[in-house]
TrEMBL record:
Protein name (Swiss-Prot/TrEMBL): Predicted transcriptional regulator, ArsR family
PANTHER family noted in UniProt: SLL0088 PROTEIN, TRANSCRIPTIONAL REGULATORY PROTEIN
Organism: Paenibacillus tianmuensis
Keywords: DNA-binding, Transcription, Transcription regulation
Domain HTH deoR-type: start-end pairs: 6-65
Leader peptide range in chain numbering: none
Length: 212
């Protein structure tokens, strides 16, 4: 296996741990289609680089198992979009002009995004709009997974938030995202947020259903 393939496999492992949470060597072996020995070789490298950590978990039956998860260092490998600078600027704005003006910035950003992406939604049916929204968010670094719920609706899951530090401090950013989704999908859709990264969730999850 060449060096480029090794790096690619390790990147896949990091992405799996980001999207699926803690996994065992056996779990990763099955999903990657490689031997457990090969998985351990990659894990040793990632542990050496302080990108993953392991925890011994006792099972109801059988031997204890090591579960691997990402360290805070690994989080820097995923899109962030200059959060520290943005947060400092927002804090300065809030100190000078008040929280309402910070919220106004998020509102204006929301309107610009709706204007930018609204054209891509035109003449599309409900399913097409949901697919388009998932593609838009994925292109913006949100690591989106779209899951059909089997009743005509979808769960849109965002495993990464490029503005997580900003959203943690200014929750209005999350509210604007919810409103943007509803506006882009139109009156034919009903959107409900089920889980939020900024409020301690493992991901942001939106339930999207056709509006009767």
């Amino acid at each position: 296996m060449n060096q480029e393939t090794d790096v690619s496999t390790r990147r896949v492992i990091l992405t799996m741990l980001k999207t699926k949470g803690a996994l065992s060597v056996g779990d990763m072996s099955k999903q990657l289609g490689i031997t457990e020995m090969a998985v351990r070789r990659h894990l040793n490298t990632l542990e050496r680089d302080n990108l993953i950590e392991s925890k011994l978990v006792r099972q109801a039956m059988g031997r204890p198992s090591h579960l691997y998860s990402l360290t805070p260092n690994a989080d820097d490998l995923f899109p962030k979009k200059y959060q520290h600078l943005a947060l400092e600027l927002l804090e300065e704005l809030e100190a000078s002009l008040g929280e309402s003006n910070v919220n106004l910035l998020f509102e204006r950003r929301k309107e610009r995004l709706i204007d930018r992406y609204g054209e891509r939604m035109k003449d599309k049916p409900f399913d097409g709009r949901v697919q388009e929204l998932a593609e838009i968010q994925n292109a913006n670094g949100y690591m989106v997974e779209l899951e059909s719920t089997g009743d005509g609706g979808y769960l849109l899951k965002e495993y990464n938030c490029p503005i997580s530090q900003v959203a943690n401090q200014y929750n209005h950013a999350c509210q604007c995202e919810l409103v943007m989704f509803q506006r882009l999908l139109g009156p034919e859709a009903e959107v409900e947020r089920k889980e939020c990264l900024a409020k301690g969730g493992g991901k942001c999850t939106y339930a999207i259903r056709p509006n009767p």
